[in-house]
């Protein structure tokens, strides 16, 4: 860049920035997902799990987890020169849900991460976004050793509408996460277009 202009003589592109939430149950991989795809060092607000929290933090199925997000995770990814996503990972435990309203303000949509070993843990997030008419998709985080189910089986188990995408992913893999985020942006655009059409119609 020279004096605010690109070397090819074109003015710099002012990117569109979009806010995406990453939600789901405790220990489902939200922090991992944000960290694997963020092009900046992600902001994390993780604290060690304590004995005092044991009665309220259900670690069955994620016994190896020793930390928990107490506020949010934050990361950024540039999908194209003109499109930047800001990612906000929500805290998973019920006692931190009061922060969700603040975090969801102005969000384009949400990725609800699901673990097939603890599928019921993502019901609260799905219910939250459905009630507020925030478009979302379900990303099934394929943990090693967990049973694999086709997207339609997960859709049935979660009682999702037919238009809610269900994608299998690996929260540790940058390319896999990018596909999920691109899928969400497309879904949110379709969702907005459908609502505009319904309002006119």
From TrEMBL:
<dbReference type="InterPro" id="IPR052705">
    <property type="entry name" value="Gliding_Motility_GTPase"/>
</dbReference>
<keyword id="KW-0378">Hydrolase</keyword>
<dbReference type="InterPro" id="IPR027417">
    <property type="entry name" value="P-loop_NTPase"/>
</dbReference>
<comment type="similarity">
    <text>Belongs to the GPN-loop GTPase family.</text>
</comment>
<protein>
    <submittedName>
        <fullName>ATP/GTP-binding protein</fullName>
    </submittedName>
</protein>
<dbReference type="InterPro" id="IPR004130">
    <property type="entry name" value="Gpn"/>
</dbReference>
<dbReference type="Pfam" id="PF03029">
    <property type="entry name" value="ATP_bind_1"/>
</dbReference>
<keyword id="KW-0547">Nucleotide-binding</keyword>
<keyword id="KW-0342">GTP-binding</keyword>
């Amino acid at each position: 860049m020279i004096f605010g202009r690109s070397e090819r003589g074109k003015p710099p592109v002012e990117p569109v920035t979009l806010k995406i939430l990453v939600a789901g149950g405790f220990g489902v991989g939200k922090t991992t997902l944000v960290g694997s795809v963020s092009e900046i060092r992600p902001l994390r607000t993780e604290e060690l799990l304590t004995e005092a929290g044991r009665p309220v933090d259900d670690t069955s199925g994620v016994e190896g987890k020793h930390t928990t997000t107490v506020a949010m995770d934050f990361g950024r990814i540039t999908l194209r020169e003109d499109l930047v996503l800001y990612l906000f990972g929500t805290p998973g435990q019920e006692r931190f849900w009061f922060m969700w309203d603040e975090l969801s303000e102005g969000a384009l949509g949400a990725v609800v991460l699901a673990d097939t070993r603890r599928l019921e843990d993502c019901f609260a997030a799905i219910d939250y976004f459905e009630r507020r008419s925030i478009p979302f998709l379900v990303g099934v985080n394929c943990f090693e050793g967990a049973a694999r189910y086709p997207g339609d089986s997960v859709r049935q188990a979660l009682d999702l509408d037919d238009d809610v995408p269900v994608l299998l992913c690996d929260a540790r893999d940058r390319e896999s996460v990018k596909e999920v985020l691109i899928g969400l942006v497309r879904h949110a655009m379709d969702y907005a277009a459908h609502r505009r059409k319904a309002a006119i119609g």
